[in-house]
Amino acid sequence: MVIALPALLDGDCRAVHDDIGAVVNEARPASVPVKVILETCYLKTTEIIQACQISESAGASFVKTSTGFAPSGASPKAVKTMLEAVDGRIGVKASGGIRTWNDCVSYLRMGCTRIGVGDPLAILSDAPEAD
Q1: 51: which residues sit within 8 A by CB, 6+ positions away?
Q2: Distance between CA atoms of 76 and 62, rounded to whole angstroms?
């Protein structure tokens, strides 16, 4: 699900929490994990932290950087902020603008639990040969 960005930017944390919580409550009986997409390119660092805290509090399984349709996707700064905010309690998915093997490796080494890519074959063809 995409976070209620207008409510978040207006400071209506209760509306954001309730929206995520409603999705979590519907998904939980079927054991479906809920990923909350933050669209980090539109958020300040403090808003990313707040969005992560609200998502975790509402029961989300993951926070995700981007849908891939915003002007920019994952950035090391945003991902680092997200990882620090959730501190391993929920997953972090880097997505949007990840186009190379080195991008993937970098985000995984940072601590991301999932990576979203548009062209996995191109990324795999960029991977070093195994010994």
Answers
A1: 3, 8, 16, 36, 38, 43, 63
A2: 17
Supply the range of the domain harboring residue 50. 5-125
Rounded average pLDDT per 10-residue block, the chain, 131 residues: 98 98 97 98 97 98 93 94 98 95 96 95 89 68
Instruction: Please give the tally of structural domains in the chain.
Output: 1
User: Residue 8 has what pLDDT?
Assistant: 98
User: Looking at the chain, how many residues does it have?
Assistant: 131
Residue 51: give its domain's CATH number: 3.20.20.70
Looking at the whole model, is its pTM more than 0.85?
yes
CA-CA distance, 77 to 72, in Å (whole number)?
13
